[in-house]
Amino acid sequence: MSLRLRLASLDVFRGFNIFAMILVNDPGDGAHTYAPLLHATWERITPTDLVFPFFMFIVGVALAAALRPYWMGERAPDRALYLRLARRAAILIVLGLLINGAPAFDLATWRIPGVLQRIGICFFLASIVILRVPRRWQFVIGAAILGAYSAALLFAGAPGVAPGQIEPTANISRWFDLEVFSAAHVYTVWPTEPEGLLSTPSALVSVLLGCWIGMAVVSGTPSARLGARIIGWGVLCAAVGWGMSPVLPMVKMIWSPTFVLFTGGWAMIAFGVCYLLTDVRYAKNPRTRRADPLWPVQVFGRNAILAYVISEVAAIALSQVSVQGTAFSVFVTRSLADGVGITLELASLVYACLFTFSIWLLLIVPYRRQWFVRV
Length: 375
Hints:
The protein is an all-alpha fold and 375 residues long. Helices cover 66% and strands 1% of the residues. The chain has helices at 3-6, 8-25, 51-66, 68-71, 79-101, 115-132, 135-155, 172-181, 200-218, 224-244, 257-284, 287-290, 295-301, 304-319, 328-340, 344-368, and strands at residues 322-323, 326-327. The longest helix is centred in the last third of the chain and has 28 residues, at 257-284.
């Protein structure tokens, strides 16, 4: 079965998510940005905080679809398959390290953790789980990971961190990352590394949630009943995460278990809606696929990693450009605000939209010619 023909919902959901990821990552002026387009400083969640966990969920859905013949027992996994999976994970990790190092590539301050690194690690571990572990034990593994991490956050102490202390400058995840990587090799914008090592198993559960939904979707023909069930599971999952948050706060920076459940639930809801609007609708009327108004979103969805890498490289390149002693993006933002008579926040958003649209234009030709980059 072709993933392209089977899960249009995946391409649409992924496309919306990549659009949002580029938009929030590249404001014209970070000092003048609307609050919903910023990450929460610690507790609570903004719409921006949903973007990365949504993508991790998407990785899981895509993985379940791609490995369907193996977990369905139609084909036995072999050494070649594991090597391909390891190669893909390694490429993601290397790309992430290169993006982190650019443009200076200074070994003394090279950030080691990162977005693509986390995706690569969790992609590989999730593939091992769904290939080697029976379904019921996969649920046990997911629950055990969240339970163990919850216990560590609530009851484990360390030098400078009291048991149960969950603060930006004092938490067990931050302490662990500083011990392993040192302060020179982690993110410096926030006190706690957002893609840290200790929180990575928790991020793995975000991918597994996507795997389990993906397994349900590709196991049969599209149906409105399944779409409604996915949305229902999402509501339940998000409610559990929210309900537990007074005890264990939802914090993206440490990928807390409540954060996993809450964002995973919303990912299910969003994916369920995309599934109803695409796969279920196409199954009822195949002609709608050929004239689908959602195709612009799929330009990002079909080349997600390429879109992300191009956007990061472009942002790094533009950060090295200054105009009249001001960073290029800030200069454009201020020029828009002064020239059009709008607020700096709105001008910053306009710049982000123009930047995102530029990346979309670069991907039109590959999309039209069916050139899709897969690592």
